[in-house]
Amino acid sequence: MPRVFLGLGANLGDRLGALQQAVDLLARRGVRTVACSRVWATAPVGGPTDQPEFLNVVVEVDPGELSPVDVLDAANDVEAELGRVRDVRWGPRTIDIDILLWGDLRSDDPRLTIPHPRMHERAFVVLPLLDLDPDPRLPDGRRIVELPAPAGEARPYASPLSVPT
Ligand code: A4P
Ligand code: MG
């Protein structure tokens, strides 16, 4: 079974509530979280510099029989349900759900690029991911802990979200 990791971020409204609701709504669509990182407070990377601080988590999910595109569709549905409006790229959002890693799978499709192309360069992804896997690797075999230090500030903010049973 490939290990599948999703990155979730929120920087508007009830951020912690939005992250927990996203985990719960994903589970209802068959994308069940089996482990959650701590919640990290992170400075915005890219996009408008005056946007609010983010909360970020990484979750490991069991996609069951779902394909990567099925999981992307579920993620987009949950983003819509939580009221995300897409306007500014890298701009503020109620919730953003990205597929980070799907075992050793590589996909260059712009609609679904796996691994997420910038994940290893960003502290808001790498630090939560290390909560769940102390030595993650990219599909090309590179160890993330041996890559240049990821950009951005991140500090632990809260304990892991509750995981649906
Ligand atoms: N897409 C392609 N590959 C994937 C994938 N692996 N997972 C497509 C999810 N979506 C993927 O995404 C744009 C398009 O990417 C979608 O049509 C999807 O089919 P989006 O969610 O509409 O826009 P976005 O999130 O603004 O773009 P993108 O490129 O995903 O942005 P990033 O790189 O994820 O950056 N700073 C902090 N501190 N914390 C954050 O969470 N997030 C971003 C978003 C920037 N700065 C941040 C944070
Ligand atoms: Mg995104």
Detailed description of the structure:
A hairpin with a 2-residue loop joins β6 and β7. The two termini are 20 Å apart. 23% of the residues lie in helices and 26% in strands. The relative contact order is 0.26. It has one domain: Alpha-Beta Plaits. Strands 1, 2, 3, 4, 5 and 8 form a 6-stranded antiparallel β-sheet that branches. Strands 6-7 form a two-stranded antiparallel ribbon. The protein has 165 residues and is α+β, with helices and mostly antiparallel strands. The longest helix has 14 residues. The site of magnesium ion (MG) has 2 residues, from β5.
Describe the largest sheet: 6 strands, antiparallel
Distance between the termini: 20 Å
- The helix-strand sequence is EHEEEHEEEHE
| CATH fold-level label | Alpha-Beta Plaits
How would you summarize what this structure contains?
This protein is an alpha+beta fold and about 160 residues long.
